[in-house]
Amino acid sequence: MRTITHWIGGRETAGDSDRRATVWNPATGQRQAQVVLGSKADVAAAVAAATSAFESWSQASLSARTRVLFRFRELVAAHLDDLAELITAEHGKVVSDAAGEVQRGLEVVEYACGIAELLKGEYSSEVSTGIDVVSVREPLGVTVGITPFNFPVMVPMWMHPVAIACGNTFVLKPSERDPSPSMLIAELYRRAGLPDGVFNVVQGDRECVDALLEHPDVAAVSFVGSTAIARQIHLKASANGKRVQALGGAKNHAVVLPDADLDFASGHISSAAFGSAGERCMAISAAVAVGDRADGLVEALADRATRVRVGPGTDPTSEMGPVVTRQAKERIVDLIGSGESAGARLRVDGRNHLVPGHEEGFFVGPTLIDHVDTGMAVYREEIFGPVLSVVRVDDIEAAIALINANPYGNGTAIFTSSGAAARRFRRGVQVGMVGVNVPVPVPVAYHSFGGWKDSLFGDRHVHGPEGVAFYTRAKVVTSRWPDRAAPRESVSYDFPTGGTA
Ligand code: NAD
């Protein structure tokens, strides 16, 4: 069986641990590879390679760094289909969706290609007599990314292009469920001319993560994953003196006002709920039907849900693939059952969805549950599957209150034809990313991505200007060049001021 290894110091290595995890093919339910699970010693080797590479990479000129990133951008674009196929093989999402993920990741590389502009400092001339001040941002050192299974290329790309462009080195700990794409990314960086040790991949699980969080030479940690783990990572990394941003889970609501175009809203909500089998942190998992058009909305959503073409991600006619593991499927099926037992109405039931020829695959069909209330587990839990709940409320104020009472605050959307209602909504919701007639409002790379409340622990969002701020620290230089020929001012023992008016 194929073994997926680490990438440390510019080459593949199996490292020193004999622990392994199975990598499944979600569409067939078969084992397809094993991945090494790194030890403390493997982490130490990766951090040592990154520490040593930092000395020269942090001194490389902006032009040198930019050229590597441009070449990397071209290589990723040339290998977009290869990356998409690797994603589909291990994650299960359909190839066209996987290609979209790579494309959105590529946007971040393109943003990072502008690093010379992004790192321009600030200069103040003559802040006091003969004194100038310059503010610059310098890299941190060894930075770490710990990433989830659901976007094995895009989520790491929220981090490493910006970190590396800023002059840091990077150790990526991808999800053990779909580890292969990160190895191709490492190879593409090598071919782009990135010096050995600047980008490293350590495969593994909790043991590896703990070793990274405890390593004294790690300066900063970016994490994306479920809320329970994000909270722990934030606490532990902070306690160990590291800068940390930890993005967590989500429960995203789409509010449909009575004045919305129902056909438009139902189509977009269906896509946002069932695309990628609902395994997106920006997936819509609750439709909030406002007022008297709920029945019409439910009918339209049910019609859409029953027409989604479910099949293996490699089949170009499939619109939705399997979920990632057998355990994920079982958990989703149990949660659907819990909604039914709690009194919700199962309008479309995907629990027994069979895909001919793929009976062992981890498929769950699109599921629509109506009359869900906020006390039910199916509403409270992040299901992370193709399950859409419909909650009914009387007015927009009740919809906003419902969203704000939810512990998560990643994304949300409103469907309406009223600008005033949309404005009321965007100002009232306690959520980091808001869509107006846009169901999956993932910010483009030159803005930053991040949620509020239990969807993000830490101060900074990822990529965009917040990413550059996260991966750099400020240095402010105040300088004076005394003129030997000029008369000297007497030295004062008072606190220096900029002179009196
Ligand atoms: P996960 O939390 O299980 O795993 C994320 C990472 O943490 C993986 O690399 C995993 O190996 C590691 N990990 C798992 N358990 C750990 C532990 N006990 N200690 C230390 N490390 C551990 O998440 P997942 O199932 O891979 O991904 C799905 C989750 O990620 C969902 O909750 C989803 O909402 C979230 N997500 C959030 C965003 C966002 O931007 N907020 C984006 C994508 C995914």
Helices and strands in order:
Layout: E1 3-4, E2 6-8, E3 11-13, E4 20-25, E5 30-36, H1 40-57, H2 62-78, H3 80-91, H4 95-112, H5 115-118, E6 122-128, E7 131-139, E8 142-146, H6 154-165, E9 169-173, H7 180-191, E10 199-201, H8 206-214, E11 218-224, H9 227-239, E12 243-247, E13 252-256, H10 262-274, E14 284-290, H11 294-307, H12 326-341, E15 345-348, E16 367-370, H13 377-380, E17 387-393, H14 396-405, E18 408-409, E19 411-415, H15 419-428, E20 433-436, E21 452-453, E22 456-457, H16 464-470, E23 472-480
Parallel strand pairs: 1-5, 8-9, 8-11, 9-10, 11-12, 13-14, 13-19, 14-17, 16-17, 19-20
Antiparallel strand pairs: 2-3, 4-5, 6-7, 7-23, 12-22, 15-16, 18-21
Helix pairs in contact: 1-8, 2-4, 2-7, 3-4, 3-7, 4-6, 10-11
The chain binds nicotinamide-adenine-dinucleotide (NAD).
Summarize the structure.
The chain is of the alpha/beta class and 501 residues long. The protein has helices at 40-57, 62-78, 80-91, 95-112, 115-118, 154-165, 180-191, 206-214, 227-239, 262-274, 294-307, 326-341, 377-380, 396-405, 419-428, 464-470, and strands spanning 3-4, 6-8, 11-13, 20-25, 30-36, 122-128, 131-139, 142-146, 169-173, 199-201, 218-224, 243-247, 252-256, 284-290, 345-348, 367-370, 387-393, 408-409, 411-415, 433-436, 452-453, 456-457, 472-480.
Name the features.
501 residues; alpha/beta; seven-stranded mixed sheet; six-stranded mixed sheet; globular; binds nicotinamide-adenine-dinucleotide; methylmalonate-semialdehyde dehydrogenase (acylating, NAD) activity; oxidoreductase
